[in-house]
Write a structure and sequence with these properties.
Elements lengths: L1 E4 L6 H13 L27 H4 L2 H13 L14 E8 L8 E6 L4 H7 L2 E5 L8 H15 L5 E6 L3 H9 L3 E6 L2 E6 L4
């Protein structure tokens, strides 16, 4: 059964293998969990840079997982324009050390998130796609959003991403409109 797990260093090898899968299909600018190289000259700040070499070390990966967990705190340091965000890593409870994907619940909307990103973002590693994982993960995230007082939830996808549109619609998403290349859905969280 699919579950949302707290980011944990035990998934290091699987997480990095998933990142390699994303890169192999041209989605290497993301790790399914947001950009993990955050340099001061790219809007970041000193002390927050995760390179592949660092993530290959157990200490570096633990720091990365801790940063993901920390981002839910209102007072956590974050990039300019970013809001508190609860990160989850998607796993199957039968194999909890294997990273299948990521899901993030953004605690509030900025103008950018209102237009493009929404409250919830998700990604499933390429080798795990088309198995209902994203649909299950989004379903599990809705009560998490409701607990934060978010209802309904804005979820977006690229206009040409038929699979993601189906995931959102399977979770009760109602299409509000298409803005540019983004489909914008409102999904009841059940608060």
């Amino acid at each position: 059964m699919i579950v949302l797990a707290t980011p944990d260093a035990r998934m290091q090898r699987s997480y990095l293998a998933a990142h390699d899968e994303f890169a192999a299909i041209g989605e290497g600018h993301r790790d399914g969990d947001g950009v993990w190289v955050e340099e001061p000259d790219e809007g970041g700040f000193p002390g927050v840079a995760f390179t592949r070499a660092e993530l290959e070390t157990s200490e570096g990966f633990e720091r990365f997982a801790a940063r993901r967990r920390d981002q839910a705190r209102e007072d956590a340091p974050r990039l300019t324009g970013h809001v508190p965000c609860t990160f989850f890593w998607v796993v199957d409870d039968a194999d909890p050390d294997t990273y299948l994907g990521s899901l993030s619940v953004r605690h509030r909307l900025t103008p950018f998130l209102l237009e493009v990103g929404g409250h919830i973002g998700y990604s499933v590693r390429p080798s795990a796609r088309r198995r209902g994982i994203a649909t299950a993960a989004l379903r599990l995230a809705l009560p998490e959003a409701a607990a934060l007082g978010i209802d309904p939830v804005l979820v977006t996808c690229d206009d040409d991403n038929v699979g993601s549109a189906r995931v959102i619609e399977a979770n009760g998403g109602v299409l509000e409109d298409v803005r540019g290349d983004k489909r914008r859905y409102w999904v009841p969280a059940g608060a």
